[in-house]
Amino acid sequence: MSPxxxxxxxxxxxxxxxxDFGAQYAQLIARRVREAHVYSEIVPHTASASDxxxxxxxxxxxxxxxxxxxxTPAPTIDPAIYDAGIPILGICYGAQLLTLQLGxxxxxxxxxxxxxxxxxxxxxxxxxxxxPGGGEVWMSHGDAITTVPSGFVATATSPxxxxxxxxxxxxxxxxxxxxxxxxHTERGRDVFERFLYDICHCPPSWTHTSIIExxxxxxxxxxxxxxxxxxxxxxxDSAVAAALVHKAxxxxxxxxxxxxxxxxxxxxxxxxxxxxxxxxxxxxxxxxADRFFEALAxxxxxxxxxxxxxxxxxxxxxxxxxxxxxEEFDPDAASTGANGATGANGATGADGTxxxxxxxxxxxxxxxxxxxxxxGSDSAATIKSHHNVGGLxxxxxxxxxEPLRLLFKDEVRAVGEELGLPHDIxxxxxxxxxxxxxxxxxxxxxxxxxxxxxxxxxxxxxxxxAGLYRDLWQSFAVLPAVRTVGxxxxxxxxxxxxxxxxxxxxxxxxxxxxxxxxxLLERLSSRIINEVEGVNRVAxxxxxxxxxxxxxx
Length: 553
Ligand code: XMP
Description:
It contains 15 helices and 19 strands. By secondary structure, the protein is α/β, with parallel strands linked by helices. The chain folds into 3 domains: 11-199, 3-Layer(aba) Sandwich (Rossmann fold); 208-426, Rossmann fold, CATH 3.40.50; 445-540, 2-Layer Sandwich (GMP Synthetase, Chain A, domain 3), CATH 3.30.300.10. The radius of gyration is 27 Å and the shape is globular. Residues 306, 386, 430, 432-434, 438, 474, 508, 545, 549-551 line the site of xanthosine-5'-monophosphate.
């Protein structure tokens, strides 16, 4: 089977399908496959064999999972897939499942293996072509394969896994008990490469250049000649999405950047510099700080703040969008680019008019692959509820353009670099939609926002200087609503403390407080107190998540 080159606009030919049996194993496997330059997608284990075959996969990987195959109910896969002539690799739970479904035995031996384990290769397997003797692997299993199904041979063993690898070469069905996707497995990458290149015959053609090329094509085909809007936040996802869409359709794209007065230091200048001056993107910079501070005056409840900011953002974006879509729409330009595509909301995007005859347009959103997987459907194009531009009114007749919806975060960053976005934007730590407001406990005023912004800029600068910025998930300053007594020079002070919050995390679902070096903390403390007027004390937040959250509000 020889797959055609991947098409990021919706590959119909040749992806590696990674079947998800729960936990996070599938995502990591899918990333490893892509790191080998082969396009992969995650599919639920409930998909029928005919659904899977219809995707014309070059290969299927059955992932690990948190359950035991002998539990009832335990997730399974439609066994017809084993007869479809598609190469299959089962990993851990996946290996045990295919063993059981094909007539072998999986037993509770009473001695599982967890962590680093020595693997001994005992037979000839194309998976171990680079690794004939075996070596250190990562195991995590309570059950073990004890009898291989008919037609299979065992090819490796470990102290407590009599069958640590097996295959039926005729049907191209392979299984490994260990986890090749984790970095602790010495030659895990080789195992994937042998499966992908030698068994599935996939070409290593999924590259950042190919992602950009195929997305440029897909965006052009989707939007035709219609106007396209993108809300820039200063963050990496919207920046990469905008740069990619701009590469596809040039000045059909208008970016809108709303300065809420709650942005980080120099963020607005950097957005201007990058998008207007470097990329020559049509940028509408709305300076709306006064409106936000006015709406937030006297408000101290965290949820009320979020709601006010979200609603005002939408109102402002809507004002700009309505003007742009109506005034800038050019029906002549649209008709030449029309492709007849009908958008999700029923508006015909290609000719630039909605079903009601109202001008329609497209809205770029930086949705990433993990959001798509988590939404449970790869066709759902719902606007994230927590996103700033959520809930745009229907009569604007926007359809979504989501050029990053097949990409993991690390791929988005690589694409951003390839498109020439500055390092600072591409590697920027996450920043919440409501901005500094959720880090200002109590009332949000222009003065308090200035204090926090100045302290935060020092935190970011020193963390960068210490070479820790990329290692930390987030590192920032928080402004509590109390004041404390201090003494500076000859005088008594009564001013705010600033709290330093720095966390490590993989996905923001859980986080640990970062053990910052003492000398860095000392520099942070003395610089913040000396340089930021209104602050006379610095504290460190040593709370993990759970029980704390990353942000203070
Ligand atoms: P928490 O504070 O819940 O934050 O541990 C988890 C992650 O989400 C970010 N965050 C937000 N992002 N709008 C956003 O776009 C929000 O309202 C929001 N609140 C929190 C936070 O920065 C962290 O990365």
